[in-house]
Amino acid sequence: MPRWKTDATKIQFMRRLNMPPQIVRLVLLTIGIVAAYLVARYILTPSSFGQYGFYRGNALEEVAARSPVYAGKKSCDECHSEELQLLAKFEHKTLSCEACHGVGQAHVENPDVKFVKMTDHDCLRCHEASPSRPKWLRQITFKEHYKGQRCTDCHVPHQPNEVP
Predict the structure, then answer these.
(1) Confidence check: pLDDT of 161 > 80
(2) Which of residues 65 and 137 earns the better pLDDT score?
(3) SS in 3 state form for the chain?
(4) What is the pTM (predicted TM-score) of this model?
């Protein structure tokens, strides 16, 4: 087909739409982008997505298949009941042992496996001043509160109001 016929056909088509060629190109580009998005969404979305709500249904099975790494407070009570009784009297009574000491399943299975040594960072995860935390939670600005000392120099973690 001669080029002049193709160009004439394009011009006739644009005249029928009564739109400038730039607008026609933008519309076609938009249609192409939307089509590419829909195809990508169809290909990339897992088949179980939306099965139980707005997330991947197979995620429940994957999470349930993981082996637990947290032992729980009851496991700690078997050997450390004295510490748990002390803890029950003070502010940290609602915390799990593993919230501060870290994951404990390996220690429960083999008592020779020791926890990582606690540092000031463990206390500051909860007690560093932050406007997002509730007012009732005691908060400090580390650089002002401790000048070269460790938290445990003045506080007993299991009994926060007691002095060592």
Answers:
(1) no
(2) 65
(3) CCHHHHHHHHHHHHHHHCCCHHHHHHHHHHHHHHHHHHHHHHHHCCCCECCCCCCECHHHHHHHHCCCCCCCHHHHHHHCHHHHHHHCCCHHHHCCHHHHHCCCHHHHHCCCCCCCCCCHHHHHHHHECCCCCCCCCCCECHHHHCCCCCHHHHCECCECCCCC
(4) 0.53
